[in-house]
Write a sequence for this structure.
């Protein structure tokens, strides 16, 4: 006991004597442990942010897509079908069979060339009705959105996403009231949507909205829609609404067997389960990041420990010459390594947590610290620190004292 | 082995030296280094005896084997063959930890490069061997102070090893070598790294310690330094070429007390 106490005081004295060496070793461990904690925490914060974004899309949204058309056993690409029509959408809203639906927003989307003056861009063109803005929470920053009137009149009006505005009007001039050509047809710009950001499944900022009927009849010459978004009256009516819409569409499409449906209904719960799969991928990614930062941090710690112990080979030789037994020398270096690792580890945890906190403040995201990451970083980095403090000391203590004394 | 030992004793009796206790008895020691297929004989059948209270200089040119001899005498290395008895203990059969114990209790080292712990105080450096010798912690400081005073460095006790001159560092090393009251003081080129005035001081301390009854073995290649010893052993090509009493021992001037 007395012996251990003496070794500890001696180790502390040695560590405080060589401030630069001690500082560098601690820095190595701090960075090793801190970076793992910070990276994993940032990853987890992003993961939770994505999850909450998906959830904020609304838990009461159903999306009907033209389903797989089984033609001779060949399954067509989902979403590529032509089985849904504007009339289907109208029927969903008006049918007495369906009473849980609040709003319906049919869409037809395609890609097209948009030209304004000398600028042009190839972007997503979506034909929408006036209900689109409520169902998908798309708001305008300037002008107005497509109205019911615009749709019935098949007006040649367009609402631009902010990215499209930036491309077509690089001088920053107000696009409202200007004319653009979409696939050769002139349209008048009546509004600009608020930026929504590029997260999610498609970039809605790089989009041009036009009236649905204009898109179908004037521009693309089709009579089907790409999808129908349905806002259900409340989240607990989702299953009922899904069933009502499903049976209505089966009847309208004259299908008796639900397994042969030529459409599919996706609810937010399906999206959430898809999001859970995304989360799984994310977790794998995070583990990868953690593993790499552990490796990098570990190598840093290993190097600094190897260098500091090697530098002291002569000292080890002297201590042996003066009568220190191998065990005492190894124990002393082990205690030094443990002290360094613990001090560095605690500072590292503190800095890692602080970095995560600052990140959450700056990005307005959740402040997450994974206890597992803290534990893993501490155990692995600490283990490496102790191992590579102990191993070269053990090697030096095994040298003949005279060899160790001559070591350069 | 017994035969070799008796051979050593016979040699002793011939010279009629059995009156004083024997401190070092070396019999037929050889040391062979192997580098690949080439064998180098650093020491070739060396035998001698050093009695308690002697002050011996071992002299020889570089490559003569005197450093190897010193390492073996210091239990820092073991001979390939032969017997080495230090203060009644047979050294060549001991394991690493037992050798460490022998070095701690029976040998006081003084190195050419001083080998003090860097950035550590004079007091702590001198206390170090007692820490490994199991001397109770409360006794160490008093003992260390006694020897620091003896080498005239009381005023420098709390200076760190890099704050004092080479000669002073060597005096710290002497104090450190003495704290365990060893059977021999083993000095390897003790003045090799210091100015000649300070070297003279070191020799004065050696002679003073020797007069108090300590046995000193000093390795050197400088005749000026060797002249301070009472006996000079010449080594060349791994063999002893000459072993003589120094009848003209030069007495060093004692100026060290002022530092």
């Amino acid at each position: 006991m007395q012996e251990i106490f003496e070794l500890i005081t001696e180790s502390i004295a040695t560590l405080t004597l060589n401030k630069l060496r001690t500082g560098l070793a601690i820095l190595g461990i701090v960075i090793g442990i801190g970076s793992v904690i910070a990276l994993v925490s940032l990853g987890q914060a992003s993961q939770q942010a994505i999850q909450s974004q998906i959830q904020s899309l609304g838990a009461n949204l159903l999306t009907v897509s033209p389903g797989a058309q089984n033609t001779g056993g060949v399954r067509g690409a989902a979403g590529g079908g032509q089985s849904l029509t504007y009339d289907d959408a109208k029927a969903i809203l008006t049918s007495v069979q369906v009473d849980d639906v609040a709003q319906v927003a049919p869409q037809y989307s395609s890609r097209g060339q948009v030209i304004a003056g000398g600028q042009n861009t190839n972007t997503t063109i979506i034909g929408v009705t006036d209900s689109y803005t409520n169902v998908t929470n798309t708001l305008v920053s300037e002008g107005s959105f497509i109205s019911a009137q615009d749709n019935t009149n098949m007006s040649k009006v367009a609402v631009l996403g902010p990215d499209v505005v930036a491309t077509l009007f690089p001088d920053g001039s107000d696009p409202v009231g200007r004319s653009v050509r979409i696939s050769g047809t002139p349209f008048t710009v009546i509004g600009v949507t608020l930026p929504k950001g590029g997260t999610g499944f498609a970039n809605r900022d790089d989009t041009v909205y036009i009236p649905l009927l204009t898109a179908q009849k004037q521009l693309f010459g089709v009579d089907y829609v790409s999808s129908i978004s349905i806002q259900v009256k409340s989240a607990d009516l989702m299953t009922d609404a899904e069933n009502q819409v499903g049976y209505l569409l089966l009847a309208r499409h004259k299908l008796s067997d639900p397994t042969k449906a030529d459409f599919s209904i996706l609810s937010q719960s399906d999206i959430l389960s898809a999001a859970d799969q995304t989360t799984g991928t994310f977790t794998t990614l995070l583990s990868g990041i953690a593993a790499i930062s552990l490796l990098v941090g570990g190598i840093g710690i290993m190097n600094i420990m190897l260098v500091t112990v090697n530098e002291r080979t002569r000292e080890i030789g002297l201590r042996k010459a003066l009568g220190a037994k191998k065990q005492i020398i190894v124990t002393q270096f082990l205690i030094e390594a443990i002290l360094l690792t613990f001090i560095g580890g605690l500072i590292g945890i503190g800095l890692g947590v602080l970095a995560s906190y600052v990140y959450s403040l700056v990005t307005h995201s959740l402040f997450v610290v994974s206890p597992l990451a803290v534990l893993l970083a501490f155990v692995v980095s600490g283990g490496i620190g102790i191992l590579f403090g102990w191993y070269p000391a053990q090697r030096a203590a095994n040298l003949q004292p005279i060899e160790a004394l001559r070591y350069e | 082995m017994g035969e070799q030992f008796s051979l050593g004793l016979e040699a002793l009796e011939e010279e009629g030296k059995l009156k004083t206790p024997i401190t070092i008895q070396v019999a037929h020691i050889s040391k062979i280094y192997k580098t690949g297929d080439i064998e180098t004989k650093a020491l070739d059948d060396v035998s001698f005896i050093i009695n308690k209270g002697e002050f011996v200089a071992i002299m020889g040119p570089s490559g003569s084997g005197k450093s190897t001899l010193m390492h073996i005498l210091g239990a820092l290395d073991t001979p390939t063959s032969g017997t080495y008895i230090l203060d009644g203990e047979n050294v060549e059969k001991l394991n690493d930890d037992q050798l460490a114990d022998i070095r701690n209790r029976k040998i006081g080292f003084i190195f050419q490069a001083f080998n003090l712990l860097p950035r550590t105080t004079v007091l702590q450096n001198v206390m170090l061997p007692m820490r490994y010798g199991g001397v109770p912690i409360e006794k160490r400081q008093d003992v260390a102070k006694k020897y620091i005073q003896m080498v005239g460095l009381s005023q420098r006790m709390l200076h760190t090893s890099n704050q004092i001159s080479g000669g002073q560092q060597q005096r710290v090393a002497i104090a450190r070598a003495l704290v365990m009251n060893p059977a021999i003081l083993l000095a390897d080129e003790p003045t090799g790294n210091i100015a000649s005035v300070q070297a003279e001081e070191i020799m004065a301390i050696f002679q003073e310690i020797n007069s108090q009854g300590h046995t000193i073995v000093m390795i050197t290649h400088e005749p000026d330094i060797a002249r301070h010893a009472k006996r000079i052993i010449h080594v060349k090509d791994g063999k002893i070429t000459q072993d003589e009493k120094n009848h003209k021992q030069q007495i060093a001037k004692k100026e060290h007390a002022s530092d």
